Amino acid sequence: MATLDSKLVNVVGDRTAKVLDTIFGYKTAGDLLHHYPRRYLVRGELSDIAELGEGDEVTILAEIFSSSSRRLQARKGSMLEVVVTDGSAKLSLTFFNQAWREKELRVGRQGLFAGKVGVFNGKRQLAHPDYEMIPDGNDVDAAVENFAGKYLPMYPASAKLPSWKIAQCVNLVAQSLDEIPDFLPESLREERRYPTLHQALLQLHNPADLDQADIARERLTFDEAFLLQLLLLERRAELRKLKATSRPVRSAGILEAFDAALPFELTAGQKFVADEIERDLAAPYPMHRLLQGEVGSGKTIVAIRAALAVVDSGGQCALLAPTEVLAAQHLRTIEKLLGPLAQGGMLGASEIATQVTLLTGSQNAAARKDALALAASGQAGIVIGTHALLGDAVAFHDLGLIIVDEQHRFGVEQRDALKSKAVNPPHLLVMTATPIPRTVAMTVFGDLDISTLRELPLGRQPITTHVIPVLEKPTHLDRAWERIREEVAQGNQAYVVAPRISAGTSEDADLDFLYGESSPDIASVEELGPLLAGGALKGLRVAPLHGRQSAEVKDATMRAFSQGEIDVLISTTVIEVGVDVPNATVMVIMDADRFGVSQLHQLRGRVGRGTSPGLCLLASSALPETSARERLEAVAGTQDGFELSRIDLEQRREGDVLGANQSGSRSHLRLLRVLRDEGLIDEARKSAEKILEEDCELERYPALKVELSILQADAAADYIDKG
Ligand code: ADP
Ligand code: MG
């Protein structure tokens, strides 16, 4: 008899075990049983092609009518289109990057095809259907009758290991399987009316009907969510055991003086979050908080206030920024807002004043030496910097708070590097302007407490966004340049954003990865700059900004732009995060379809920050009704960053949503989809909280404890962002 840990060799034989190992990395019976079917071919319930409706899950018996594959231009890869017919009508099947299927899908062969009916360019199709070909020369009726059960599981397969072969192996394992112990607490299982783990696994592979398969799948999905939440809650509990220096707000300090000098009223949301943070800082264990907020919602002020609270208690704050442009801007903002309060140590300075210093990789030796000394002595209450902050030479007198701006640009290791510079575990505040739905945040950053800023400060100007379809309406681009001239004539400023620095390169390695071959016709800063300066924008003060420039040039350019000495900044996505120049009112984004939805939202957040409304023009060659065009229309259609991040996430694969570590074959998240399973994740979270409340060591649930420790061991090997 076999258990989940039994070696596959002993169950399915040498040769097959080897193939399973090479292709999927499966070694045990459990590995294979966790290879779940995607869907089922339903024997005896075949649909007529003529009657298929969009969105139907169908199984059809059909013959291959034609087959052709072609390389894709815009994206690297190939598309295989197979047209099948059942005599009544035709249907096309499409496969992206699976050219090897062409060999099986030969004209004249018959097979069963299953999938969800979609519509593309007005034609019904099945994208990536599952199928089972009838062996050549076999009688079709007999072959169809031959399928064992009524619901034939269709597995993620490959040329070497077709679905039916996997089904055979699963059956072998199932036949010799001992009762699998269930780790889900009995009471929880009963409450949710779930089958046992043993039943669920067998039923998912071989269901009596589709309802049974659904319940089995839900149980296994819940398991994933439940274990994950337990893991994250335990991590949080671990953090609470750490001892941090408590930093309660004190009266008559620098924070109070700052608040009094602030030229505006905090929004209700800012006040709420500020309270949460103050409470966290006063606690004897480290704060571990994510502040996510709509672009322009005023996260920086909230962060500065947290820093000042720590300064008031005699500690220091390190503010980590992703780019030199942003670090320098933070310094300017903080110095401006603090005024004389940033002159600590100077003659005649107030007693509560502090110093703010900047540490970046491109500073000259003298500036760097000063900054290092200020940080080490504790004279600098706030140390702003880029990656340079992480270096070994950087030491603090009493590092009490770490603030990470635009946290998606940093890894956990980098946060840890900073943490190690503190005597006691420091408080941590990470900020992101790419808001994500709560369940996603809970799954990705589950051990962080989450604060969200939804509202924008009062009087914030609306941003109007339009798509400029350059192929259909080439003159509209001329109109865009005119708009820039008009805005500049009124004393405002503009951004022009291009995907690339120079022809054939891109600022974002992502872009090259995504689009493969360099496309010469994609706009670049180096080409666009001279072109506009000598043409459509002649006479305006135009300057380029991109990541290959030296830090001095970048800083000087940003400074000049924010002081109004430059009219139009032609830039790559270096301005994507955080740049705050209220006088900028219009932005033209070239080849906008090359950017992600959230990225476009971030970019356009650079305009409309002052007293005049913002205008964002998305120039693109994408044709109507393509998905690229639809993404742009979506950005133009809403200003709600949360909605847009959802669209963004829906288009990405789960592995990308949760980080690369979840996508491998050893992943523990096989079924869970953070967007689709929001409800389930919420429920799992509550169940996990309840269990831990009653029994924080899981003494009463030994099987669960074991399962969790396996997960924890893998987590140590980077199962999920450690927060
Ligand atoms: P983000 O959340 O995108 O980082 P910032 O912190 O850069 O936003 O804030 C955007 C702009 O709004 C800044 O110029 C900031 O000074 C201003 N701001 C922040 N809070 C308020 C407020 N309560 N009222 C008015 N303006 C504010
Ligand atoms: Mg910001």
Question: Summed up, what is this model?
Answer:
The chain is α/β, with parallel strands linked by helices. Bound molecules: adenosine-5'-diphosphate and magnesium ion (MG).
Features:
723 residues; alpha/beta; OB fold (Dihydrolipoamide Acetyltransferase, E2P); Rossmann fold; 4 domains; seven-stranded parallel β-sheet; six-stranded parallel β-sheet; 25 helices; 38% helix; disordered C terminus; binds adenosine-5'-diphosphate; binds magnesium ion
Explain how this protein is built.
By secondary structure, the chain is α/β, with parallel strands linked by helices. 38% of the residues lie in helices and 18% in strands. It has a seven-stranded parallel beta sheet, with helices on both faces. The longest helix has 32 residues, at 210-241. The protein is globular and about 95 Å long. Residues 506-519, 659-666 and 718-723 have low confidence and may be disordered. Adenosine-5'-diphosphate binds at residues 264-267, 270, 293, 295-301, 433, 457, 578, 580, 582, 609. Magnesium ion (MG) binds at residues 299-300, 433, 578.
